[in-house]
Every structure is written in structure tokens, then in C-alpha cells.
Amino acid sequence: MKSGRKIAVSQSSKAGLPPGTLQHVGERDPEPTNVRVFVYGPDFAEEKNPECLEELFRIRDSNIWINVSGLFNLEEIKRIGVLLRLHPLTLEDILNTNQRPKYEEFDDYIFLVLKNIRNNGVYNNFNDSVKNENNNGAAINYFSGDLLRQDNSISSGQVSIILGEGVVCSFEEAGSDLFDSIVKRLFDSKSRIRKYGSDYLMYALTDCIVDRYFAVFENIGEYIEDLEGRIIEEGDDGVMEEIYALKRNLLFIRKQIWPVREAVSGIIRNQPELISEKIIVYLNDVSDHLHQLNDILESYREMSTGFYEIYLSTLSNRMNEVMKVLTIIATIFIPLTFIAGIYGMNFVYMPELAWEHGYPSAIIVMLGTALLMLVYFRKKKWI
Question: Function, please (predicted)?
């Protein structure tokens, strides 16, 4: 389905087009579109053929969840938009993967844009570089230097959620296992997703995305601990590059998470009719998690700033150690140079010059002087 030519376009390519024009906007090619349809109620749950969507919307005797992964097939997305009676600007925002996380309320539905951040591996090797995807889906260096294996990465993708009366539709920028746990819970007869309405499903999808943030933060925390130890032990230029990369990418993550908190807070504050009061309680829990994540993120950013000061302090201490050693060596050689200078003068009447034990005596005096100075330095705890 996906052609070999590059079809990813930037925002500027839509200049002059009328509002609501359906065109994918992003830094990478859209993936093939895959549609899954689930119908559920308190006593049942089953997956339906996407071709039966029109019939399901005509009957509307149960809750419907449509999960769309990949934004390649514009006709299929438009078809779903017609069934959900989505505003053309909403469809345009769904296809624009550069969107900032936000919440919008319309007459018949709620539109929510989130960012899914996840790490595709484990921080178990600090010898290679890794790439992630920026806010537009483009690959960028997540942490330069030594961080992850080449087959591990951290990625960010856009997720759009539509909540209507008895229906939820989620649009993922790319196919993933993001909502596999939700599907599993849907087919559990004791699950709350079945007992409650579609607004609870919207909450569950949002909570699933937020929970992924914690996994990413735990891995970043492990990396920060390792980096702190290497700053003190090594303090080379490569560590400095990692500190700068860490600060840049913590800023990137902040741009992803901070608007999500605003969007969830907007839903709680407005309490739209499509969301019951008991679901607002669950959304408050999501909001608490987002506040906790932001606190952790701010502490990480402060630590990264402190790393720079630790790095400079470590360099300064090492330079002081070097200067101390050089100073001690120079201090020891000052009296030795003085003795050698005296007996290096070209005077005729110097009795020690004709003495047969003059040379070994001068060497003994020099060694004794150096030894006495070393003992003195040790007593003063300078060495």
C-alpha cells in the first residue's frame, strides 16, 4: 500500500489551501492505515469487520471503539470522519502530526490530541548512540554519546482521540502496541470498560498513554545516575556533550508532556456533557500523574544543570591536583638548583672543589634536602 516515493510534507506545503483540506503533514511518510472496530457492552465484547461500520452506526445498540493506526489512507479516514460527523478542521488536525497536545469541545464530540512517548529498548548498554523522533516524528539524537544499543530508541508519536455519544475513535500516527492492554481489558468480563460508557474508555486510553511516560522517566533516571558517576570518575569532553544532549532532550520531553496536562485540566475544568461526573474523578487521577511527572521532569532538569557545575568543579579539582604536584616538584628542585648553582660558579679558590669527597657529599646533601622536604610536606598533609 505504501509507495516508495517520499510523501511526507511540511506545514508550509499547505499554504494557500482552503481550511479543512485533507493532507498528511509530518516529517516522515505516513504508515499504512489499519482499522480495528470493537463493539462492547456490559455483557459482551467482540471485534467487527471495519466494512460493517455504516451498519453499526445505523443500529447503535452498543458502545463502539474504532482504533485507526497509520494515516496513509485519506479516503478511509474521511469515511470515518463522515460517520462521526467530524468537523473538517478536526480531520485536518488529525492528519497534521505536528499538532501540540490540546483539547477541543464540539457540539457532538470531544477532540483530544496527545503525544505518546516510549522507549523501544532498555538502558542496558552505554556504548552506542540512539535516535528518537521529535515532535514532528523526525529522527533526532535523543542522547548523544554513550547511551543505548543501536537497536534501542525512544520515540514520540501523535495520538488523536474522538469521544462521541457511545463511540470512541482513536487515531495513532503509526502502528504500535500502545493500546494492546486496553484491548485485553475490553475482553475481560470483569473490566470496568464494559460496565461504564465510552467516556471511561476515553479515560483508559489517556491513562495508558500517561503511564508510558513513567516507564520512559524511569529509564532516564537510571541514565542520569550513571552519567553522574561518570562525570566524577571521567570528566572528559564526551561527558560534557552528553550533559548538553540531556538538557536538550529533557526540554523536548517537557514540550510533549506540559500541554497534555493543560488538555486534561481543561476537560476537568469544563466538565463536558459527554463525560460523566464519576469519570471526572478518574481524570483527576490522570492529572495528578501528570503533575507528578512534571515535578520529576523539573528535578531532572535541575540535576542536568547541576551536572554542568559538577563537571566544571571536577575539572578544576583535577587541575589543582596537577598544579599541586608540579608545585611540589618545583619546590623540591629550588634548593637543589641553589646548591648546584653555588658549586657551578667558576671561582678558583673554592676549597670543596679540590676535595676528593666533594662530589658525593654534594649529592648526599641534595638527596637529604629533597628527603627532608618530602617529610615536611607529608607532615603538613600537602601530599
Answer: Mediates influx of magnesium ions.
Taking Cα atoms as reference points, which of 224, 236, 250, 32 lies closest to residue 132? Answer: 250
Domain residue ranges in the chain: 11-314, 315-379
3-state secondary structure of 309: helix
The CATH number of the structural domain formed by 315-379 is: 1.20.58.340
Residue with cell 488523536: 160
> Is there a common fold for 11-314 and 315-379?
no
CB neighbour class for 54 (10 Å; exposed up to 12, middle 13-18, buried from 19): exposed
Contacts 24+ apart (CB under 8 A), 306-309: 307/227, 307/228, 307/231, 307/243, 307/246, 308/243
Mean pLDDT within 191-209 = 94
- The model's pLDDT over 102-121, given as tens digits with 9 standing for 90+, comes to 999 999 999 999 999 877 54
Cα separation, 132 vs 119, in Å, equals 9
Q: Minimum mean pLDDT among 105-119, 135-149, 178-192, 199-213: which range?
A: 135-149
**What does the DSSP 8-state code read for residue 111?**
E
Q: Are residues 283 and 124 in contact, defined by beta-carbon separation less than 8 angstroms? A: no
Q: Which CATH class is domain 11-314?
A: alpha beta
Q: What is the pLDDT of residues 252-273, one digit of tens each?
A: 888 888 999 999 999 999 999 9
Beta bridge partners of 40: 45, 63
Residues 6+ apart with CB under 8 A from 128: 146, 147, 148, 149, 150
- For the record, the C-alpha cell of 20 comes out as 479543512
